[in-house]
Amino acid sequence: MDLAYIPSPSTGVIHLGPIPLRGYAFCIIIGVFVAVWLGNKRWIARGGTAGTVADIAVWAVPFGLVGGRLYHVITDYQLYFSEGENWVDAFKIWEGGLGIWGAIALGAVGAWIGCRRRGIPLPAYADAIAPGIAFAQAIGRWGNWFNQELYGKPTDLPWALKISEGVNREAGLYHPTFLYESLWCVAVGFLVIWADRRFKLGHGRAFALYVAAYCAGRVWTEYLRVDEAHHVLGLRLNVWTAIIVGLLAVVYMVVSARVRPGREETVEPKKAEKTEKADGAVDGAGEDEAADAEPKDVAPDTDSEEPEESGLSDAEKAEKPEKSTNGAGSAAKS
């Protein structure tokens, strides 16, 4: 008799009238909101403008969903295109099946388009959203719990996951690999935040750290899984993918640190230009005020003083009649 285990939901969907509310979809949506929220805070802290992360996510998220589904369908094509299967099921994304490798790859393409439209360097944007992506994955993995999928080998550990009888699955207690990966992703998110603050990571190195750390955990969680998958040299395809992608991320961090050390001083050029223009306007106004404050030259009062009679000889000065101070005196002299 098993005294402790993690129960699985009896169903992954609740119907609100004719509208189905699926746990898998909710986990994906909540994860996206968390990633955008945290990415926005980190972007502003690095000198960016509020709302920029969300604007670019409008491009990145749809591309990522399409890429994740494409990767899953291509690598598990036998589930949809083999004899007796219905190829239409390949479009039923709500039933589960998103490959993180395809999601990140095609999502990066969407992010690049959004960054290019805003004149923003993609590596800086990737660094800002890296921890948020890790947390989004942690939340998204609970969608596998709702669908009772991606569990590991049988186990009698107290935290074993109870799986019920269903299509392509047998009832029993299994390793909760969804939970292992979820917890690992949370740790990766905090690792990236700490390393970014400690070492001032820039030029895409925070994102590369996220990729490398995630791949390290994905290797052992993938090894525990028992769902159908293609094998290469005795290892699951996703194990090889995690090893290769993780090594590439480490190489990028090392090379990037040597070629472009430090962190970007400006992450949003257009905002910097506006700031410079505003500063220039303030400085110009200050100069005008200073100029207005300077005393202006006062014209001499010609009525109060006699003009100098330079150039006259003493005899000429003696012959020149004196100017009268009043009208009477002037008349008497004439």
UniProtKB/TrEMBL annotation:
InterPro entries named in the record: Lgt
Role this protein plays: Catalyzes the transfer of the diacylglyceryl group from phosphatidylglycerol to the sulfhydryl group of the N-terminal cysteine of a prolipoprotein, the first step in the formation of mature lipoproteins.
Pathway note: Protein modification; lipoprotein biosynthesis (diacylglyceryl transfer)
A GO term for molecular function: phosphatidylglycerol-prolipoprotein diacylglyceryl transferase activity
Subcellular localization: Cell membrane
Alphabetized PROSITE patterns for the sequence: LGT (PS01311)
Enzyme class at the top of the EC tree: transferase
Annotated protein name in UniProt: Phosphatidylglycerol--prolipoprotein diacylglyceryl transferase
